Amino acid sequence: xxxxxxxxxxxxxxxxxxxxSTGPRNRETIVSPDGCIDIxxxxxxxxxxxxxxxxxxxxxxxxxxxxxxxVRFRPAGSTPYLQVPAHLLTDxxxxxxxxWKQEQIDRLWDxxxxxxxxxxxxxxxxxxxxxxxxxxxxxxxxxxxxxxDVSSAVGLSRQQLTRLFQQTVGVGPKxxxxxxxxxxxxxxxxxxxxxxxxxxxxDLGFYDVSHMSRxxxxxxxxxxxxxxxxxxxxEV
Length: 236
Known about the structure:
This protein is an alpha+beta fold. The protein has helices at about 80, 100-105, 115-125, 135-140, 145-155, 160-170, 175-190, 195-205, 210-220, 225-230, and strands spanning about 1-5, 15-20, 30, 40, 45-50, 60, 70-75, 95. The protein has a six-stranded antiparallel beta sheet with strand order 1-2-7-4-5-8, with helices on one face. Strands 3-6 form a two-stranded antiparallel sheet.
C-alpha cells in the first residue's frame, strides 16, 4: 500500500511529502515523471538511494514485497540536501552514500520507524538555504505560460533560465513544463475531474488530442488509452 504524508511545516519549502510503500505489490505499477528528486530507503536491504529527476516513466514489477520509505523533494528543493547539481542525477539512481557521510546514513537504521528516521535525517541536513525564488516563480508560471514569457517575467534570458533549471531541478524549463502538464493530466484522471479528451486538451494546454497522445507516448511509454486504463486500475 502506498501512502503519502505531509512534511512538518518547517520543511515545506523543500519537501513535497514523505511516503511509504508497504506490503506486496499486487500489480505492475507505472511511476511517471513528476519533476522531483527522491531519497528512497529500503530497510530490509539496508540500502538508501537517490532517484534523480525522471524524464520518462519506469515500471515496477508485481510481486515485490519489500517495504520502502522515501522523501520527495519539491522541484529545486533537493539542492541544500544533496549539494550536487540536479542535472548530474537526472534519470539516475545513485547510492546516498556518495552524497552523505556514512554516519548520517547509519542513523537511518537506528530507529524502529524508518520514516521517522528519514524525517529526522532530513531535518538535520537542513541548512536553511531556501530554493532559488526565481525558479519557484518560474515553476508557478510555467503551468499556463510559455518558456520565453516566463524567463522575461523572472528577469532572465531563456538560456539563463535553462541553466538554472538544469542545476536546481534537473531538466530545462521546456521539458519541466511537459512533465508538469503530464502530472496534471494524471492527477485529473485519478481525481475523477477529467472531462472528455477535448476538455483535457483545452484545460492542459495541448494543441490537440494527437499532441496529447504523443506526449503520453514519449513520457509514459504507452498509448493514451492505455494510460487511462492504467489509471483506472490503480497502476499509475
